[in-house]
Amino acid sequence: MSNASTKAKSGFPNPLQWLGGATLAMLGEVGRLSIFTGKTMGASFSPRWYPSQIVRQMIAIGFYSLPVVGLSAIFIGAALALNIYSGGSRFGAEQFVPNIVVLGITRELGVTITGLMLAGRVSAGIAAEIGAMRVTEQIDALKTLSANPFRYLYAPRFLAGIITLPILVLIADVIGVMGGWAVSTLGLGFDSTTYLRNTMDFLTWQDVTVGLIKAVVFGGVIAILGCYHGDKSSAGATGVGRAATFAMVGAAVLILAFNYLISTVLVDFGS
Amino acid sequence: MSTQPLLELKDVHKSFGPKQVLTGVDIDVAPGKSLVVLGGSGSGKSVMLKNALGLMTPDKGQILFDGVDVTRDQGKTREAMRARIGMLFQSAALFDSLTVWENIAFRLLNADGMKRKDAKERAIETLKQVRLGSDVADLTPAEISGGMQKRVGLARAIVSRPELIFFDEPTTGLDPITADAINDLIVEQTKALGAAAISITHDMASARKIADEIAMLFEGKIIWRGPASMIDDSGNAHVDQFVHGRADGPIQPAL
Q1: What CA–CA distance (Å, rounded) separates B150 from B138?
Q2: Chain A residues touching residue B91 (CB < 8 angstroms)
Q3: Which residue in chain A is spatially nearest to B95 when comparing CA positions?
Q4: Domains: count for chain B
Q5: Strands B221-227 and B85-88
Q6: Does the residue B155 lie in any domain?
Q7: Which of A66, A102, A156, B240 is within CB 3.0–4.6 Å of A53 for a Cys-Cys bond?
Q8: How far is it, in rounded angstroms, from Cα A103 to Cα A77?
């Protein structure tokens, strides 16, 4: 009654009521996502597994992402080298281009760019696929055929995500560094051998490890957000489209948030 | 001969928010019998079926399979039930990423652990039972027609020789000739298996063909049940209106 009268008088909902409602909705969403994540991880790390599904998802998530990851990495590496050269020349630090490129790519840009590209390509794709299965009753059919969707659908995608993303990130690291090398040697006058020697001398295994730790987390985030939003997709093309959008945006935001959190925890690792 | 129903729903209630969909469904099916549940759009037929299958949990009431309470169980008891049932979904619900034979043999491969070669042979054998040739076995669902998808869905439902088969609107979206062929197959295959069947439909031609008994669901409750031969002489105004497809009567059109 009071709610109706508040709305009627002002024409807008009570701001406190709106804030409370939004907070409760957000907490509910976090709770549901946490339960879904727990169930997916439980199914991923206990028998029974579906190896053929895991391999199929590794190909879909990993192999088919190679072109987009490679192209993104080479351009990022090249642009990074150019910008560091340009900025560094203001105080005579141009010679640090190889060092900063390899550090920036392995610790930060290789993994973040790979994660964001896969949030768009993979997370949205998983959400659309699972969403379509949900609205065409294929997930109900799985259950009636005694297959648990968490084991048959979600765990293979989660496992494929956490296995393939580190591999993709290693490839992105190499290609990104080579992008910087190509621009530096072809356009900025660096000697090829010196550039590569400086890169290898400066690179530590800790730098690569930080990127790989992030990659495992990002792989899980991408797969789980795709599966979660697909699983709760509502009927119709709009519902499936919305699930894909939510999965992509949610995965991208969580990747950036986790990137910061992991960087904070590992900032002293290898320094 | 056993008189215990194979499946029993007792006083089943189900609501979605303020909307009460099932308000106390009582229904059962005996082994080897075919029961058709009629009802208009939005009458709760699909919700009733999903509760019976364990895809939804009732708010209140009991579901017994072969005398065992499976109402809230999602563990071994429910799995034991699912091993003894088959289901043909309205849209066939075939898995896009698998071939026709892998769809049919899904349970054999994944739940029963059958070897692929044996499972494929069994799937092709079952394809023949639904009048499809082995040439469709390696196609994907997207490469076959709607009628063929229904047949493949039926093959998937019967391949593990179930004791109870659920049919959700088996003829929806099919032309009358294909629909009649599907009805014939349903009758033939359930009889051959000696299985019980529960079908939900609003297609009277289908109901007349496949039912031993017919029940009418209205406003979340079973309001009439009788032999299929009595459907034109039910003495129930709701059933009469539905059977004759009249807009005037106690049932308001779902507009």
Answers
A1: 17
A2: 136-137
A3: A138
A4: 1
A5: unpaired
A6: no
A7: A156
A8: 11
Q: Do B79 and A140 touch (CB under 8 A)?
A: no
Q: What angle do CA B33, B38, B43 make, to 5 degrees?
A: 135
Q: Which ipTM was obtained for this model? A: 0.92
> What is the extent of the structural domain holding A136?
50-265
> Which residues of chain A are at the B interface, by a Cβ-Cβ cutoff of 8 Å?
50, 56, 132-133, 136-138, 140-147, 152
Alpha helices in chain A (DSSP H): 2-10, 15-44, 51-61, 66-88, 97-104, 110-118, 124-135, 138-144, 149, 155-187, 192-202, 205-231, 236-265
Segment-wise mean pLDDT, segments of 10 residues, chain A, 271 residues: 49 84 94 98 94 96 97 97 93 92 96 97 97 95 96 98 98 98 96 96 94 97 98 87 96 97 86 59
Q: What pLDDT digit, counting tens, does each position of B196-208 carry?
A: 999 999 899 999 9
| Closest residue in chain A to residue B56, using alpha carbons only | A140
| Residue B57: CATH number of its domain | 3.40.50.300
Does residue A37 sit within a domain?
no
Tell me, yes or no, whether B250 lies in a domain.
no
- Report if residue A28 sits inside a domain: no
User: Which domain, by its residues, includes B238?
Assistant: 7-84+162-244
pLDDT digits (tens, 9 = 90+) for B55-106: 999 999 999 999 999 999 888 899 999 999 999 999 999 999 999 999 999 9
Instruction: Give me the torsion for CA of B232, B237, B242, B245, rounded to 10°.
Output: 90
Peptide bond just before B116 cis, omega within 30 deg: no
Q: Is the separation of the CB atoms in B189 and B197 below 8 Å?
A: no
Q: Show residues of chain A in contact with B95, CB under 8 Å.
A: 133, 138, 141-142
Instruction: Evaluate whether residue B97 is within a structural domain.
Output: no
Phi, psi for residue B218 in degrees, rounded to 5: -145, 130
Across the beta sheet with B164-168, what order do the strands follow? B85-88, B164-168, B196-201, B34-38, B213-218, B221-227
Residue A256: other Cβ atoms inside 10 A: 15
- Residue B88 near residue B46, CB atoms below 8 Å: no
